[in-house]
Amino acid sequence: MTTARTADAAATVPAAPRRTGEADEPIGAGEPDGTGAAGAVRAVAENARRAARRLALSTGGERATALRLIADRLSAHTGGVLAANAEDLAAARAAGRDAAVLDRLALDRARLDALAATVRSLADEPDPVGGVDGGGVMPNGLEVRRVRVPLGVVGMIYEGRPNVTVDAAALCLKSANAVLLRGSSVARRTNAALVAVIRSALADTSLPVDAVCLVPGVTHASVRALMALRGLVDVLVPRGGHDLIRATVRDSAVPVIETGVGNCHVYVDEHADLDKALAVLLDAKTRRPSVCNAAESLLVHAAVADAFLPRALTALAAHGVLVHGDARVGSYDPAVVPATEEDWGREYLAPELSAAVVGSLDEAVEHIRRYGTGHTEAIISDSQSAVRRFVAVMDTAVVAVNASTRFADGGQIGLGTELGISTQKLHARGPMGLAALTTTTHVLVGDGHVRDGAAVPEA
Amino acid sequence: MTTARTADAAATVPAAPRRTGEADEPIGAGEPDGTGAAGAVRAVAENARRAARRLALSTGGERATALRLIADRLSAHTGGVLAANAEDLAAARAAGRDAAVLDRLALDRARLDALAATVRSLADEPDPVGGVDGGGVMPNGLEVRRVRVPLGVVGMIYEGRPNVTVDAAALCLKSANAVLLRGSSVARRTNAALVAVIRSALADTSLPVDAVCLVPGVTHASVRALMALRGLVDVLVPRGGHDLIRATVRDSAVPVIETGVGNCHVYVDEHADLDKALAVLLDAKTRRPSVCNAAESLLVHAAVADAFLPRALTALAAHGVLVHGDARVGSYDPAVVPATEEDWGREYLAPELSAAVVGSLDEAVEHIRRYGTGHTEAIISDSQSAVRRFVAVMDTAVVAVNASTRFADGGQIGLGTELGISTQKLHARGPMGLAALTTTTHVLVGDGHVRDGAAVPEA
Questions:
Q1: Cβ contact (<8 Å) for A454 and B282?
Q2: Domains of chain A from N-terminus onward
Q3: Buried-exposed string B239-253: b where 16+ CB fall within 10 A, e elsewhere
Q4: Cβ contacts of B370 within 8 Å, gap of 6 or more
Q5: Spacing of C-alpha A93 from chain mean position
Q6: Torsion of Cα atoms, B347 then A440 then A120 then A112, to 10°
Q7: Distance of CA A99 to the CA centre of its chain
Q8: Are residues B423 and B414 in contact, defined by beta-carbon separation less than 8 angstroms?
Q9: B274 touches A: beta carbon within 8 Å
Q10: B26 phi and psi angles, rounded to 5 deg
C-alpha cells in the first residue's frame, strides 16, 4: 500500500521544494471523451452492483483463493503489462511530464513481483467480513448480532501510480466489495492491462469478473459521473494529492472516505530527554520526507531551546533539511531562513521543516490547533502530567508520545494492510485497516417476537 | 428520544394518510432574519468550539452531575417554559397550523417531567468517551491505544418538537460534545426557554455554559450558515422529516449523520408459522404506524397466500389498516384497494400497508431491493436455509427473523439511549447509541521510539 497519502509511500523525495503530492493528474486533465460518459459509467457501476451482490455471498476462502490466483497471474503475465507501461511512459515523456511522474508510473518486473506479494499476503489476513462485533440475548429472548458486512461498491479515484490499481482491487476483493477503478490518464494503458490480468484470473474463480471494473474514460466527465452515483456506489476513496481529495470531498454526492494532509508537529517539551527528542525528530523528518506522517514542523520549549536547537539544527543540516524558523530559531544558525506565516501551515513533503520556540506546552497546543491538520502530533517529554495534558487536548487522529510521527501507519500499529490514513472523524479516523471497507448489519432473531405484545384477533 | 425518525416516536397517528413526517417547518420557511446570519451563526459556533475543548477535558462524573442538575431544573422551573410554549402555541394557532403540529409542539408538566426523567437516566448510563476499544503492545515495545473521544461540536437541525432540544443537549453533554441547536421557528420561544434553563444549570457546574448553544435565527439563512461551517462544526444530525434530512445531506459541507426513511417489509415465507407471522405483522403495522420501524409493506409467498391472507386482511381491517394490494391480494377482500407503482415505495407512517404475493423468496428479495430503503426487513420462516439466504442477501441496517420490525431500536437491542436509526453505511448503521457521537484517537506511547532506527549524529 504505497501512495504518498499512505504511510509507506515510496521514499522518493521530490526535487522541487513545493509540495506537489501526487498531483500529476489533476481532475479535469486528460483527453476529452465526449458525451455519453455518464451513461457508460453508470452501466459499469450497475455491473459492479450485481457483482457486489454475488460477492456478499462469497466465502473468505473463495476470496483468498482468488487473490492468490491474481497474485500468480501478476507474476506470470508480466509481458503485456510491461509493454502497456512502456507505451504509457513513452506518451508521458513525449508530453513532457516530469521525472517524478515518470518514476511513479514506471513498472518493472521487480515492482510487479512486489505488487503480487502484497496481494498474496492480503489473502492470508483474517477475513474482515462476517465477524460478529457485538450483540447478545435480550431479556425477552430476542437474539441480537451485529455483523460486519461489505460496503458494496467502492469507487477508487487516484492518480498516476498503477500500483494503486492492484492494491485497491485486492483490498476490495478481500473485503467482499466490488470496485470501480478510475485511475489517471497517464497510466491508462497500464491500468487496462493490469485490470485485464485481474479479470482473467477472476474468470477462473467462483467470483464474478465484474468484481473489478475499470471506469470508462479518463476525463473529468467520468469522475463527475462516478461522484453522482449515490445509491449505486456506496463510497468513494480518493487516493492521491491534496487537490484530488479536496475536489472529491467537495463535489461528490457519494459518501467519501477522506485521506488527508499531514502537517505533523514534533513538540519538544521542557522535560524532554533531548537525545530521544533528536532521534525522533530525525526519524520523523529525514527518513521519508515525502509521506504524510513525516514531521513538517518542530516546536521547542524555550527552557530547552539553548540545549536542543544547536544540536538539532546541525543534525538537520547534515541530513540536508532546510529549516524555516522564527527569530529565536534563526539566532542559533545563519542557515535558518525566516519562516513566513504560510510556512506554519505547509506540508512540505520534502526535506524542509518549519521550527519555532514556544513559551509553554499550552502555547505549543495553540500553535498546533491553529496550523495542524488533525493527522499526527508528537510530544517528547518525560513529564507524566505534560504528556497527559497534551494527549487530552490534542484533537487529532494520532498522538505520538516519545515516538516518531512515522508510526502513524496501519502496519506499524497492528492493523494489517493499510487502506490509508483518515483525517476525518466519521466512519474511520487515523490509520485504516480493511475494517474501514466494511459496515455492519444488525441481525435480530426471535421466535415470533413482538414488541408490544399485540393480541392476535381470531381469524 | 421521541421523534418520528427514531423508533420510539410518539404514538400519534397523523390524521392524513399521506406521509407528512414532521415536515411542519420546511427548510426555507420562517421569518426573514436579514443579513448577518452567517456571521452570527459562526460566532456562536466559535463559542461552542471553545466549550468543546473544555468538555474534552471533563470527567464523566462532572458530566453526569451536570445532567442531573439540568433534570432537576427542568422539573423545577416549568413556569417559564410553559409560558413560552403557550405563546408558541398561540402563534401557531393564529397562523393556522394543523393539529399534528400543535400536538408535537405542546408541552405540559407531565411532558417536561418525562424529559427530565430521560436526562436523569442518561446521567446513569456508561460514559461513551474515554473507553479503550483496541490496542496492544507492538513487537518493538510501542504501546498502542485506540481511545474513544468526542466528535467536538455537533449541530442538530430539527423541526417542531421541543423535546429534541432537551434530548439533543443531553445526548451531546453525555458524550462530551458541544451542541448547536437549530430548531423550528414554530417552537422558537419554547426552545429559547428550555435552553435558558439548561444554560443556567450549566452555569452552576464545572462545565462551560456554551456547551449548549441555540443557533441564532430561525430562517433558512441560519441553516445554510450552519451547513457551511466545515472544520468548525464536526457533524450535523438532522432529525425530522424526509425533506429536512434530504436537504441537509444534499447541501451540507459539514459531514452528516443521516437518519433515514423506513419502508420496512414483512416477508411471510412458505415455511412460516402463520400464527407468528400474523402476530409480527400486527405488531409491526398497527402499534405505532407513525414511526420509521413500523412495517409499510407485506410480501406473502404464494404457497401460503390462501392460508394467510384472509386471516391477515381481516385482522388488519379490524385494526383500521387500509391495504393497497396487488390483484392476488385483492382477490381475498374487496376492501383492498389496488396498489399503484408508487405504493410499493411509500412510507405511509399511517394505518396503511402495501401488500403483494410473491412466487419465491428470491422474488421477495428482488422486490425489497427495488423498493426498500435499507432500514429494516423482516422474514417469517421456520426454514433454516431460507432464513440464512434472506439474511445473507439483505443489504439493510437491520434484518429481523421471526421478529417484529419494531425491534429496530437502540433501547430494544441493548444500545441504551438512542440517537436515531441510521440508514447510511458509513460511521454508523442501524440503531445508534451514544457511540455514534464519538470518534477515536490513536495514542502511541514509546520511549524514544523511531521507526527506521535513524542514527543520531554527534552534535
A1: yes
A2: 38-250 (3.40.605.10), 264-411 (3.40.309.10)
A3: bbbbbbbebbbeebe
A4: B344
A5: 28
A6: 50
A7: 23
A8: no
A9: no
A10: -60, 150
A268, A283, A288, A308: which to substitute to probe chain B, counting the most B Cβ within 10 Å? A283
CA distance A137 to B200: 42
Q: Which residue among A310, A439, A444 places its CB closest to the CB of B399?
A: A444
Q: Grade residue A17 by pLDDT with cuts at 50, 70 and 90.
A: very low
Determine contact, residues B336/B329, Cβ cutoff 8 Å: yes
Q: Are A128 and A437 within 8 A, CB to CB?
A: yes
Q: Could you tell me what percent of chain A has a pLDDT over 70?
A: 91
> Per-residue pLDDT for chain B (459 aa), expressed as one digit of tens each?
333 344 433 333 333 333 333 333 444 434 444 457 889 999 999 999 999 999 999 999 999 999 999 999 999 988 999 999 999 999 999 999 988 889 889 999 999 999 999 999 999 999 999 999 899 999 999 999 999 999 999 999 988 889 999 999 999 999 999 999 999 999 999 999 999 999 999 999 999 999 999 999 878 888 999 999 998 999 999 887 778 888 888 888 899 988 878 999 999 999 999 999 999 999 999 998 888 899 999 999 999 999 999 999 999 999 999 999 999 999 999 999 999 999 999 999 899 999 999 999 999 999 999 999 999 999 999 999 999 999 999 999 999 999 999 999 988 998 887 888 998 999 999 999 899 999 999 999 999 999 975 444 433
> Which residue type occupies B377?
E
A459 touches chain B (CB under 8 A): yes
Strand order in the sheet with B337-338: A132-137, A143-150, A438-449, B398-403, B376-380, B264-268, B295-301, B352-358, B322-325, B337-338
C-alpha to C-alpha distance for A294 and B148, rounded to whole angstroms:
25
Q: Which chain B positions have a beta carbon within 8 Å of A450's beta carbon?
A: 279-280, 282-284, 403-404, 406
DSSP code at position B236 = E
What was the pLDDT predicted at B35?
Answer: 53
Beta bridge partners of residue A158, listed in sequence order: A239
DSSP B130-167: S-EEEEEE-TTS-EEEEEEEE-SEEEEEE-S-THHHHH
CA B457, distance to chain mean position in Å, is 58
Whether residue B175 contacts residue B128, with contact meaning beta carbons closer than 8 Å, is answered with yes
Give, to the nearest 10 degrees, the angle between helix A163-174 and helix A60-76.
Answer: 160
Q: For the segment A250-303, what is each residue's pLDDT rounded down to a tens digit?
A: 888 899 988 878 999 999 999 999 999 999 999 999 998 888 899 999 999 999
The residue type found at A164 is: V
In angstroms, the CA B317 to CA B352 distance is 10
A61: number of Cβ within 10 Å: 10
Give the length of chain B. Answer: 459
Return the C-alpha cell found at A39: 451513461
Q: Which three cell numbers stand for residue B416?
A: 441504551
Interface predicted TM-score of the whole assembly (ipTM), two decimals = 0.86
Of A315, A394, A451, the CB nearest to B456: A315
A228 contacts chain B (CB < 8 A): no
d(CA B372, CA B241): 18
Hey, is the C-beta of B18 within 8 angstroms of any chain A C-beta? no
C-alpha cell, A80? 503485456
A257 near B CB under 8 A = yes
Alpha-carbon distance of B350 to B290, in angstroms, equals 6
